[in-house]
Amino acid sequence: MTTTRSTTPRSIRNHATGRRTFLTAVGALATTTALGVPAYASDSARDAATADEYVDVQLLNITDLHGYLQGPTGSDSVVHGNGGKKYTVGGVAAMGTHLERLRDGRRNSLFFAPGDLFSGWEFDAAAFSDEPTIEALNKLGLDFATAGNHEFDKSPANLIQHMERGHAYPVVGRDTGFRDSTGRRFRGADFPYYSANVVRARGGRTVLPPYHVEWVRGPGGRRLPIGFIHLTAVGSELFPNSFHPGLKTLDDVATADRYAKELKRRGVHAIVLSMHDGAVAGGDFNSGSNPSGPAYELALKVSPDIDAIVCGHWHTRFNMMVPDPHGNPRPFVEAGFHGQVINEINLRLDPGTGRVVRELTVSTSHPNTRDVTPHPDLKDIADHWAARAAERERSPLGKQRGPFTRTRNTAGQSTMGDLAADWTLWAARRAVPAWDDSNIHRHVPAQLALVPLAPTVGQSFVRGDLLPAADGSVTFGKAWRAIGYGSPIVGVRVSGQQLHDALEQQWSTGPEGELRFAPLAVSGNVRYSFDATGPVGDRVAPADVLIDGVPLRLDRDYRLATSSYTLLGMDGYPALSAYREPYRHERDFESFIAFVRERRELTPSPLDRVRPKNVHLRGGTANAGKVTDPPVPLREDGTELPPSVAAIVTAGGPRARRHGGFRPPC
């Protein structure tokens, strides 16, 4: 639990200095001041650089990189600083250069991150099992990281066995174990992950170490400890991407207080909280105003023994001091997302006691601007994986005999929807491999699948069409982009009544009194009809729903396959939210890739699974309802948000958290 490491930054400091330009300490300070206004704990902190009697410690942090090695695009690549000045930011190649400059001449420097470094939606990294991100972070010299919700997107075992330790499975070079920019097979992270509040649902044991201690160098060869407590966003096990029946999260304040007390008891008097939850506090990356959100609420009441709070998860940017319960200021920061910002906290430690001299604390956020000479090794890494991704995008997986489109008939069916439902059932009939430790319930093969195609809230995970290429091939890139946003398929136990109610919930009354239709695709072993003249809530007779040729019984249980997003009520079918015995399967886009590989050839099925009754009735009373495809929300520059982000910010349901109109995007 306690680690002892040198605080000399690794990797990017080990290159010959002649290959790049360094700033002097004075030059670095001048540049920092020009970019924004640092947050000072007190007026005395303005002169902290001259307080030579104390031990200077530099804490550098980034958050929510999500595998964006090339950096974000569009409006996400622009941040606003002091006086409204704009900076174009992002990319690990620029970050490597900035980090070298910030670290230059610093005896005690630590670089860490409060989560979501990998996983999410960036194809260049995600298509290679997120291994490119780890290679880049190793080269950047990351010392340690807090596990965010996205670090659990596959499974706890994947985080520990694959991402940390480098174990490859199931097929080396196809699924994991790719060759990196140096030609080596993936070997895992050079840094550890931590979380104090993610525990096993059975037994309550922490999945990762809850905290650790770093040692910095003081005068006369003395070493001083700094404790780091790590928190993951509460409720991560019920987020759609990181949905895990086998996990739960503990209360964040109580957990942080517990380990702060334990660290103090062990003689550690300087403590930092790294937490993957955040707040909103204005739009200036180097200041903060009107803060709100769970991390801010925590910051006001968590143990006063904690000297700094570093946040993530909300994809926001702020840098400020907030009072602890005793009224003493401490840094409260979040460094944006996708490599936009590097935050720097400078602590001064009393060499005799190891305590932080709070009034001398300074925090500054630096934009990761692109107007610098790219770090050559990190540029090589980013370029290597971009080229590999382009190759993988074009690689064939199988064949198709005809087009699969989202074009719907009167009953709401489409060839792409039927394909998605058939794949969903296929996915939930396969037990997860032995190395996946996501589940606590036994695997029971699914009996049917339901897939929302045009929900009234949220997004459909049927995202694109599969149109045949000239040679009839289905490429990796086409399959990847046709289905999903990183949520797993889940098999659950539901009653026949719940299935019937979900089918009825396809219809609702719109704001103008119009009949709305949010069609569900059903797997190929299901047939049902609906009364096009019936009122909302009474359009589907149970006897008209056939599963494997047998009428639906309201009083018996069935094993249903669908997305975690649907089960959590995020796309408007609340009847399914009272599921039981959930069993998590593979993530959607990865599972669909495996499905196409196994099937080898895809053939569109006839659109005969759903049949409207009385649709030709005279008098104009027949109406299947109006279908409205959910719009994809846009960035400031008019481009579409990534699918995973769009799915969260448009979601409905009881877990769609909003704070002052703002919703955390991941």
List keywords for this structure.
alpha/beta, 14 helices, 666 residues, disordered N terminus, 31 strands, 7-stranded mixed β-sheet
Brief sketch in words of this structure:
The chain is α/β, with parallel strands linked by helices.
What does this 3D model show about the protein?
The radius of gyration is 26 Å and the shape is elongated. The strands form 8 sheets. It has a 7-stranded mixed β-sheet. The chain is built from 14 helices and 31 strands. Strand 6, helix 5 and strand 7 form a beta-alpha-beta unit. It is an alpha/beta fold and 666 residues long.
Distance from N terminus to C terminus (CA atoms, Å) equals 29 Å
Query: Ranges with pLDDT <50 over ≥5 residues?
Result: 1-36
Determine the number of helices (DSSP H or I, runs of at least 4 residues): 14
Let me know the largest β-sheet. 7 strands, mixed
Shape type: elongated
| Total beta strand runs | 31
Helix content: 10-25%
Read across the widest sheet, the strand sequence of neighbours is 1-17-16-2-5-6-7
Structural class: alpha/beta
Mean pLDDT, to the nearest integer, reads 92
Strand-residue fraction? 15-25%
What would you report as the Rg, rounded to the nearest angstrom?
Answer: 26 Å
Task: Break the fold down into its secondary structure elements and pairings.
Layout: H1 25-35, E1 39-40, E2 55-61, E3 78-80, E4 86-88, H2 92-103, E5 109-113, H3 123-126, H4 131-140, E6 144-146, H5 156-164, E7 193-194, E8 198-200, E9 211-217, E10 223-232, E11 247-249, H6 252-265, E12 271-276, H7 294-301, E13 308-311, E14 317-323, E15 329-335, E16 341-349, E17 362-367, H8 376-394, E18 396-400, H9 415-427, E19 448-452, E20 473-475, H10 476-482, E21 488-495, H11 496-504, E22 507-509, E23 515-517, E24 520-522, E25 526-531, E26 545-547, E27 550-551, E28 557-563, H12 564-567, E29 580-587, H13 588-599, E30 601-602, E31 610-613, H14 643-649
Parallel strand pairs: 2-5, 5-6, 6-7, 10-12, 12-13, 13-15, 18-30, 19-28, 25-31
Antiparallel strand pairs: 1-17, 2-16, 3-4, 8-11, 9-10, 14-15, 16-17, 18-20, 19-24, 21-28, 21-29, 22-23, 25-26, 26-27
